[in-house]
Design a protein that fits this description.
The structure is a single chain. The chain is α+β, with helices and mostly antiparallel strands. 13% of the residues lie in helices and 29% in strands. It has eight helices and 38 strands. The strands form ten sheets. A five-stranded antiparallel beta sheet has the order 19-20-21-22-23, with no helix packed on it. It is elongated and about 80 Å long.
Length: 653
């Protein structure tokens, strides 16, 4: 059998892949062999029936079986299938033991893929984790680009060829740098106990949803756990202790079983990532508060790098981009893609406490870059429209850019992306500012902006404890009620029915700092006030609908809505992201989703695969010479996918 494996493996030459790519779509080219083994750890699973599928175009429907084979007594199989030029199709395989309760899986991804595979507990947990929003029962399907991106993320968790640990999960900044690898191995151990018959009934009971049917096989059970990682954490941990197949593993039960990964680009680009924005392909653009310094005791000034990651967390070819030519300098919470793919950023003017004043950012401009990272704004950025300490920078459906001038007490709108056609709304004066008479009120501090379906802009006002609604012409349309529980608001988002969600930090006073200020705590206290930390829900006309607490919320900052209208909240404290049901305001995970890879987070964003990305903005113990965090952390598959780029209320793909 080993001789046969070698023969078949040698036959799978790069020439074969090239022939498949050049064939006519939909026409069988030739028979190709998928060679593999089915195992539980190092133990063969004999006589398993392996079926190869093409994923469907919708979740739960349309998948097609294109070949099958039965493994021998050593768990080895050779599965022949017709190779097709099926660009973008996602392939996956399911192995079913003679005992129908035992099913394992692997995701091969799009063609060309490695045709030597291992199917084991690790490949199964990787599949149900990264593909959580696309797996229904034992079938996989969904819309692009999220489906394809999710299949690529599988390979960050596991090596499909060997069934071993994936290179990204198994090495720094993951690996032993956080608990993510150990958590993943514990999930695999819990599945291995069920596969080996040690804990099968207990595993199935743990994976049974409230009021739902008990799973009938291990793949369905693992999928159920991925879909509700917050349920029964202690019981699942106990099950993971029955066998120790994969190490290192957890030594205590986690808050939830959601799997997270950390990405740091090239390792010397991220320093205080402030906010991310996705393009139509799921690539992630990210700004930086500070210039990168590995030693945080050394002075740092404003960040001038514009980062761009692929959907699986690596630097996009050519990125990061030096934004100096476009005036990028100390950007904050403001980043947006417009309808033609350009990237807008608000230069809030962040700098470390010992940055020489001659090098400190001026904090009064907007930068613009092409989809390839080329500067489209001048070296000083765009200053038209009374820009002063801009935070939120948002594009509406027509390409008009809305800007929250946090340190000017105003909102600016560039009509159709033209800085020379603008109006400025003076929040303290409750009216449009006269031309050439810039508001300079740094006490009210507008911070977040979200655009509704009609192109109106909701603005959170940090020091006024309110939210206001402005029309595209700059007229005040509505404001939040006094009893809405809005306290030091930060982020703001709009769901698919037009309801408005606001994150109430409770304590944050957004800084407007002049170089030379001696303050060591720009944001005030860093200890959460759980009496005031909350989220508020308003109707489209501003009517108060609810105020919600709990769910692991602690210094809530950024806020995002997923494709099912659930609400996700980044916390500047306690290393958690919180989630709430959009219809009831009920917390989804009782104590949030925790990862020790998180530090202090500002923005949260959902991608087309249903991954939840958080900006590691500040260190847990932030020295003011350089308090910046070091990258992005993503929880895999825990939210409903969204259509990107984001314009107006959330949209499904």
């Amino acid at each position: 059998m080993r001789f046969l494996l070698v023969l078949v493996a040698l036959s799978l030459s790069p020439w074969c892949y090239g022939q498949a790519r050049m064939s006519t779509p939909g026409i069988d080219d030739f028979s190709v062999a998928l060679v593999g083994r089915v195992r539980s750890g190092d133990m063969p699973l004999p006589l398993a029936r392996v079926t190869l599928y093409v994923a469907g175009a919708e979740k739960g429907t349309g998948n097609q079986a294109i070949g099958s084979a039965t493994a021998d007594l050593q768990g080895v199989f050779v599965l022949r299938f017709a190779a097709r030029n099926n660009r973008g199709a996602v392939y996956y395989a399911i192995a079913e033991s003679p005992n129908p309760a035992i099913k394992l899986a692997t995701v091969l991804g799009t063609q060309p893929f490695d045709q030597i595979v291992t199917i084991n507990e690790r490949t199964t947990i990787a599949a149900v984790t990264a593909m959580a929003q696309y797996i229904n029962g034992v079938s996989i399907g969904g819309k692009g680009p999220g489906l394809q991106n999710a299949s690529l993320m599988v390979r960050k968790l596991v090596d499909p060829r060997t069934g071993g640990m994936g290179a990204v999960l198994g090495s720094s900044p993951n690996g032993t740098d956080s608990s993510s690898m150990a958590l993943f191995n514990s999930l695999c151990n819990a599945l291995a106990g069920a596969v080996r018959g040690v804990t099968t009934p207990a595993y199935f009971l743990i994976a049974t949803p409230p009021g739902g049917p008990m799973p009938t096989n291990t793949l369905q059970a693992a999928s159920n756990i991925a879909h509700a990682s917050w349920r029964r954490p202690a019981a699942l941990y106990a099950a993971s202790q029955a066998v120790e197949v994969y190490t290192p593993a957890l030594s205590a039960a986690p808050v939830t079983w959601a799997v997270s990964l950390k990405f740091v680009g090239n390792g010397h680009e991220f320093d205080g990532p402030g906010a991310p924005a996705f393009d139509q392909h799921g690539n992630l653009w990210i700004n930086n508060n500070y210039a990168y310094r590995s030693d945080h005791s050394q002075p740092t000034c404003g960040g001038r790098l514009l980062s761009k990651l692929t959907p699986t967390g690596q630097d996009f070819p050519g990125a990061p981009y030096d934004g100096t030519a476009g005036g990028l300098d100390g950007a904050g919470f403001g980043i947006a893609l417009d309808p033609i793919g350009r990237v807008w950023l608000g230069n809030f003017g962040f700098f470390g406490s010992t940055c020489p004043c001659l090098l400190a950012p001026p904090a009064d401009s907007i930068s613009l870059f092409s989809a390839s990272g080329q500067a489209l704004s001048p070296p000083g950025g765009f200053k038209q429209g009374c820009i002063r300490g801009p935070q939120a920078t948002v594009s509406d459906q027509g390409g008009s850019i809305w800007i929250a001038n946090t340190c000017g007490g105003s909102v600016t709108r560039y009509a159709h992306g033209d800085p020379n056609v603008n109006w400025v709304y003076d929040i303290a004066g409750n009216d449009l500012a006269p031309v050439d008479d810039c508001p300079m009120d740094a006490t009210v501090k507008p911070f977040g902006i979200a655009v509704d379906a009609a192109g109106n802009g909701w603005v959170s006002v940090n020091r006024n404890d309110e939210a206001i609604l402005l029309s595209p012409s700059g007229q005040l349309l509505a404001r939040s009620a006094l009893n809405a529980g809005i306290t030091a608001p930060m982020g703001i988002a709009i769901d698919s029915v037009g309801d408005v969600w606001i994150s109430n930090s409770g304590i944050v006073n957004v800084p407007c700092v002049t170089c030379g200020d001696s303050s060591d705590a720009l944001y005030g206290p860093l200890v959460p006030d759980l009496n005031t930390a909350s989220i508020t829900k308003l109707a489209p006309d501003g009517t108060f609908l609810g105020n919600y607490k709990g769910g692991g919320i602690a210094i809530p900052w950024g806020i995002a809505v997923d494709g099912d209208d659930n609400v996700w909240v980044a916390n500047f404290g306690q290393q958690k992201v919180a989630a709430f049901r959009g219809d009831t305001g009920e917390a989804i995970a009782p104590d949030g989703f925790h990862s020790d890879a998180l530090v202090r987070n500002t923005a949260v964003t959902i991608d087309p695969s249903g991954n939840v990305w958080l900006a590691n903005n500040w260190l847990l113990q932030p020295p003011q010479t350089n308090p910046g965090g070091d990258g992005m952390v993503v929880f895999l598959g825990i939210a409903a996918p969204v259509k990107t780029p984001a314009f107006g209320p959330v949209r499904k793909p």
